[in-house]
Amino acid sequence: MALNDDIALLSNVALFADISEDKLRLIAFGAERRRVLKGHELFREGAPADCAFAVAAGSFTLSKADGEGRLQHVATVERGALLSELALISMVERKFTATADEDSEVIRINRPLFRRMLEEYPEVTALVEARIRENLQAMIRRAEALAGRFA
């Protein structure tokens, strides 16, 4: 695919939605496209995460191992989803296994590339910080809504 197609895709990813095209060009130019065949794993739960993946085509099943090691379906993600976004900021472990439901493509965005953009464009840092804060607040609200079930 062309660089402009990757920029268009990244502009539809929630984390990057308010970032200008010229700044997204830096990510798209430095990112790597990968093809994942149907049934193959993009990554496995518990593995170190040194990058995030934007789904460019196809879909992935996200699953977690239960207490007996069997994979349990968590969600299905499609084009425009960003997997492991916190890996762009910090070393984390993958929280689930991602398996291609069909022949798919992802854009691999590594942490050094993303950090370079944050260093060069402080306004992008503010946007990303706000987006991550919003995501954490939404997660806290969801957890609080479930608190009654565990009282």
From TrEMBL:
It comes from the Bacteria. One of its GO terms (cellular component) is cytosol. GO terms for molecular function: DNA-binding transcription factor activity. InterPro entries: cNMP-bd_dom, cNMP-bd_dom_sf, Env_Response_Regulators, RmlC-like_jellyroll. Transmembrane segments: none annotated. It holds the Pfam family cNMP_binding. Gene3D superfamilies: Jelly Rolls (2.60.120.10). Coiled coil: none annotated. This is Cyclic nucleotide-binding domain-containing protein.
